[in-house]
Design goal:
heterodimer, A: 244 residues, alpha/beta, Rossmann fold, three-stranded antiparallel sheet, 7 helices, 9 strands, B: 275 residues, mainly alpha, ABC transporter involved in vitamin B12 uptake, BtuC, 12 helices, 0% strand
Chain lengths: 244, 275
């Protein structure tokens, strides 16, 4: 039996107004690649923040590897939707990725040689090694996403959480990043939040449809028009077109 | 400037002033860099001005005003830090209130202390020429403390300044390091009070670091450059104020401000040229 890595038991959450999430039950098993989809303000990012322990549930219980999320942060890597830092911050790509080693490296002084060697592999894997000495502010959107992914991978996480990792980049970079995630999924559990159900269904093993409550969570081949309509509140039209 | 160099060789008080300027620049280059990248200049201003309350109380009760300044600065840093962390909606109003109330308390205490006028002016605007030699050791001690904390917790401070949320996820106790950083800002403010006074502290704390940010690609390099620039501006300001007998603190700040404007202009032109 595959062990459960993340468990939501009857979880509800509100910031200060109405409930953002209501009675969510969700189990994510080790080795899964789960896509969380749904409309804007449907609670997708909140679900991730509850998983990360950044928010406490208003009701119910969240656990990661059988522990409260706050005690499991060191086994989690996180790629945020919006970078929380200014683009003019004087920091290179290498230094940014090194920050991902916090929690697994020594607590005092600068970075060790082992840290630098460890992130070299991650940077090669995410194809940002040639950018190591570049300033973060000079990168394109796609390059920055790869740096944030490398930073999340630097602690060698067992669970990788990504919040709309390709929201502001072109389609080719989006495919490249998801190809890489598919490869990473051989070694780690991945949960990715996206508004693009059509695109991520090519990659993920299971889709969790969320619109304040969890509407369903099932393998991608079971996702049909009825579920999509229930999720987004309207019919979704597919438009065929070609580029000559 | 030639007169100043000649006088510098002769007069011990000028040598002491230059050493005080360099010592102040060390702590301020390091901590000013954090203030600039973390964008907490307003908080630092609040801490700097609240210090007058502690100095005034120390003077009134006959304690060394610098000890009063240090105690008041650290208390102000912790209170302002807690306000920032827990009262986000009213943060600017609360810090502004502490800024003004701290000064008001200081002025009341100083007004009740005999001979207050000379002291008040020197605390508000500093007088680097009157720094007593024993105070240099005290300033050196504060520099050593600031540098030690920065070296030991370099990673944690960088993470907290860069991305608080990510730092928290990596197990860094963000609240503790944020408050520690503000306490270090408080110590830097006290270091600078003797040089430029608490009204002008913010300029010397932030402008050398802001210039350094335009040329450095890491916070570490920014600190080194900010220290060098701060020391240069202190010596240059002292030199320029010497012959016309201008107030040295104000001259140092004017030199620093002019350099910041010039550097920002050059940076903007270079960026425009690249496009």
């Amino acid at each position: 039996m595959i062990p459960t890595l993340v468990r939501f038991e009857d979880v509800s959450f509100r910031y200060s107004g109405p409930m953002v999430l209501e009675s969510v039950h969700l189990d994510i098993n080790e080795g899964e690649f789960v896509g969380v989809v749904g409309p804007n303000a449907g609670g997708k990012s909140t679900l991730l923040k509850l998983m990360l322990g950044l928010l406490p549930p208003t009701r119910g219980k969240v656990s990661v590897a059988g522990r409260p999320p706050q005690q499991a942060t060191r086994m989690m890597g996180y790629v945020p939707q919006y970078p929380a830092f200014g683009r003019d911050f004087p920091i290179t790509v290498e230094q940014t990725v090194l920050l991902g080693r916090l929690g697994v490296t020594r607590w005092w002084g600068g970075w060790s040689r082992a840290d630098r060697e460890s992130i070299r592999n991650v940077m090669e894997r995410t194809e940002i090694a040639p950018l190591a000495r570049r300033q973060l502010g000079t990168l394109s959107g796609g390059q920055l996403q790869r740096v944030l992914l490398a930073r999340a991978l630097a602690c060698e996480p067992a669970l990788l959480l990504l919040d709309e990792p390709t929201a502001n980049i072109d389609m080719r970079s989006e495919s490249d990043i998801f190809d890489l995630l598919k490869e990473l999924n051989r070694k780690m559990t991945i949960v990715v939040v996206s508004h693009d159900v059509g695109f991520i269904s090519q990659y993920v093993t299971r889709v969790a449809c969320l619109n304040r409550t969890l509407i369903c969570c099932h393998p991608t081949y079971e996702l049909d028009g009825r579920t999509i309509k229930q999720l987004y509140g309207d019919a979704v039209q597919m438009v065929g077109h070609s580029h000559d | 400037m030639t007169d100043f160099v000649a006088a510098l060789v002769q007069h011990e008080f000028l040598q002491t002033a230059v050493i005080a300027g360099v010592l102040a620049s060390i702590g301020c280059g390091v901590i000013g860099s954090y203030v600039v990248v973390k964008r907490i200049t307003f908080l630092a201003g609040g801490i700097a001005h609240a210090v007058l309350g502690g100095m005034g109380a120390a003077l009134f009760y006959g304690v060394d005003p610098l000890n009063g300044a240090l105690a008041a600065a650290v208390i102000a840093a912790i209170v302002i830090g807690l306000v920032k962390l827990h009262l986000r909606q009213h943060e600017d109003t609360t810090i502004g209130a502490m800024w003004a109330v701290g000064m008001a308390v200081g002025i009341i205490f100083i007004s009740r202390t005999p001979g207050y006028q000379v002291d008040l002016m020197s605390y508000l605007f500093g007088n680097i020429l009157l720094v007593p030699s024993p105070d240099l050791r005290w300033m050196l001690g504060l520099d050593v403390l600031l540098l030690s904390l920065t070296v030991v917790f370099y990673k944690q401070f960088l993470a907290v300044c860069f991305d608080e949320e990510f730092a928290r996820l990596r197990g860094v106790p963000v609240t503790i390091f944020y408050l520690l950083l503000l306490c270090m800002v408080a110590i830097s403010v006290v270091l600078l009070i003797q040089v430029v006074g608490l009204i002008l502290v913010i300029a010397l704390l932030t402008l050398p670091a802001a210039i350094a940010q335009q040329y450095a690609n890491s916070v570490g390099r920014m600190m080194v450059l900010a220290i060098a620039l701060g020391a240069l501006f202190c010596v240059l300001g002292l030199g320029l104020s010497y012959r016309p007998d201008f107030p040295p603190g104000a001259t140092i700040v004017l030199v620093t401000g002019a350099a910041f404007l010039l550097s920002s202009l050059v940076s903007a032109l270079v960026r425009a040229g690249r496009r």
